[in-house]
Amino acid sequence: MSIVVSGVRPTGNLHLGNYYGAITNFLKMQERNECYFFIADLHSLTTHPDPKMLHTNVRNILSEYLACGIDPEKAAIYMQSDIPEIVQLYLLLNMLAPIAELKKTVSFKDKIRKNPENINAGLFTYPVLMAADILIFNANYVPVGKDQEQHLELTRNYASRFNHRYNVNYFNQPTAYIFDKELIEIPGLNGSGKMGKSESNCIYLVDNPQIIEKKVRSALTDNGPVGENTPKPDYIENLFTLLRAVSTPEVVSYYENLWIVGATKWYSNLKKQLAEDIIKLTIPIRQRVNDIRNDDTYLRKVTQEGAEKAKETARKTLKEVKQLMGFKSF
C-alpha cells in the first residue's frame, strides 16, 4: 500500500472538471492506498481571501468532497491549517530552497504577471509549502496535473537535498500518480480551454437544473457541419467531450453520426440532451451536499478525526527530521 497526498485550495465550488479530473480518481485511490486529502486553506492566503468567506469556502469544498463519495473511514480528510507540523516542516525546508530556483518557477512568474500588485513571500515560497504537504507524510505518490509537475519536481529536489545534506536516505522521491487510464480534461463552455473557475466557463456540481440548462444553452456553436466527414471546430468538439463524459455511448454515437452525415439543425437537441445528462449526474450530489453542509456535528467529526490521523504521522516525521538536523531536547 502506497501513501498518496492531494489537496485543493478553497477558492470556490467544485465543477465538472474537478469531478472528472480528480474526484473520480480519488474514489479509486482510497480503495487501495493510504490517502491524505486536505483543504489547502493556508495556500489560499497568498491571494488574500475575504476572512468572512474563507471558512464558508472550506465548508463548501469539504461538503462536496464528502458528497461525491470520498470516505473519511478510508482516507484522512483534514484542513491544512489544523496540522501545525506542516508549517514547521515548511520553515525547515525553506533552508534547502535557493532563491534562484524559486524565481524560475513557472507558476510564480505567471501569477506575478497577472497580479503584479500582489507579489508576496508566501507566493514566492508556495512550492516549499507544497513540498511540506507531501513530505510530512513521506508520500510515494501525488495526483497532479500538468500545471503542477514542476512543483512536484521541486519537492523531489528538496527531498534529495535533505538526504544528501544529512547523509541519510530518509525522504522518498514522490512521483505523479498514474491512473488506470488517461485523464479526461473537461473543456469550458465558452470554447476556450479547459473548465476553470478563473475562466467563468464552469458548470458547478451544486448548480441547480435551471442554471445548468441556461449555461449549456449558452455554449458556443455555429450553423452546423458544412458537409460530410468534416473536422469539428474545437468549440464543437468541446460539446462532444462533455457528452462523452456524462452521456451513454448510444447517445454519443447518435450525435456523432449526425455530424458525420453533415446533418444540420440538431445542436439544440444535443444541448438539451447534454443538460439533462449533467443534471442527472449532479442532482444526487447537490442533494447530499445540502444535507452535509448543514450538519456541523458530522463535519466537525470528519475534520477532527482526519486531523488526528494526519497528526499521528506528521508528528513522527517532524520529530525524526529535527533529530537528523541536530535538534535535541535537554
Q: Could you name the CATH class of the largest domain?
A: Alpha Beta
Strand order of the largest sheet: 1-2-3
Shape: elongated
Number of domains: 2
What's the β-strand tally?
5
Q: Provide mean pLDDT, rounded.
A: 90
Query: Any idea what the CATH architecture of the largest domain is?
Result: 3-Layer(aba) Sandwich
* The CATH superfamily title of the largest domain: HUPs
Largest sheet: 3 strands, parallel
Derived from helix and strand composition plus strand pairing, the structural class reads: mainly alpha
Count helical runs: 14
Order of helical and strand elements: EHEHHEHHHHHEHEHHHHH
User: What level of helicity do the residues show?
Assistant: 55-70%
CATH topology (fold) name of the largest domain: Rossmann fold
Radius of gyration: 22 Å
Compute the separation of the termini in Å: 37 Å
Query: Which consecutive residue ranges, at least 5 long each, have pLDDT under 50?
Result: none
Strand content: 5-15%
Outline the secondary-structure elements.
Layout: E1 3-8, H1 16-32, E2 34-39, H2 41-44, H3 51-68, E3 75-79, H4 84-94, H5 99-103, H6 106-114, H7 121-124, H8 126-135, E4 141-142, H9 149-165, E5 175-176, H10 209-217, H11 234-246, H12 249-260, H13 267-293, H14 296-325
Parallel strand pairs: 1-2, 2-3, 4-5
Describe the structure.
The protein has helices spanning 16-32, 41-44, 51-68, 84-94, 99-103, 106-114, 121-124, 126-135, 149-165, 209-217, 234-246, 249-260, 267-293, 296-325; strands spanning 3-8, 34-39, 75-79, 141-142, 175-176. The chain folds into two domains: 3-184 and 296-325, Rossmann fold (3-Layer(aba) Sandwich), CATH 3.40.50; 206-290, Tyrosyl-Transfer RNA Synthetase (Orthogonal Bundle). The chain has a three-stranded parallel sheet. Strands 4-5 form a two-stranded parallel ribbon. By secondary structure, it is mainly α. Strand 1, helix 1 and strand 2 form a beta-alpha-beta unit. It is found in: Cytoplasm. Its EC number is 6.1.1.2. Its main location: cytoplasm. Homodimer.
